[in-house]
Amino acid sequence: MEPVLEEEKRPARTRREEEAHLARRAQKLDRYEQVLELHDQGLTVTDIGSRIGISGRTVQRWLHNGSFPEAQRRRRRPSLIDPYERYVLQWWQAGNRNGLQLYRELTAQGYRGSSKAMYRYLERLRTPQRHSLGSSLPKPHRRKSVSALPAPLENFSAQRATWSNGPLEGHVNRLKLIKRSMYGRAKLPLLRQRVLWSA
Q: In terms of Cα–Cα distance, which of 148, 130, 129, 178 is closest to 42?
């Protein structure tokens, strides 16, 4: 079989994978901006790491690089469908969408992988390619000045608070007790009735 080009070997991420990737990137970007802010305030690398919840080495690397560390896309590990990718791509581009038929054709050609792996590959083919992913992502920027903690929490003391989450904890504890007492005996409708009846 002919070798498959590297760009053909990389189908686009599924929508779920893309959303998870963007969420992770946004979280990392937020941490990066916090690192810059705290560094501007004169905190040490160790203090920054402990406040944000990342290692001091990561903080040091981010500050040393001087720009937001974009994640590199990992190389895909070889799979059993690799030798048949050109055939699958031609089959897909011809407008075929019957996965069971494709699985039968591949097994007749010697494919030994699971149907689940094949369907996972087809799911990636269904996702349209994103040509300008980089242009749609927000760029990191420096905020002017932010204190380490929001103002209401700076002088917070639980003893002086006028509110308590005790009632909420009581309800959670009651719900867990009811759930444990029913464990393995009934499903959600009975649990719902018992929770509402005991309220």
A: 148
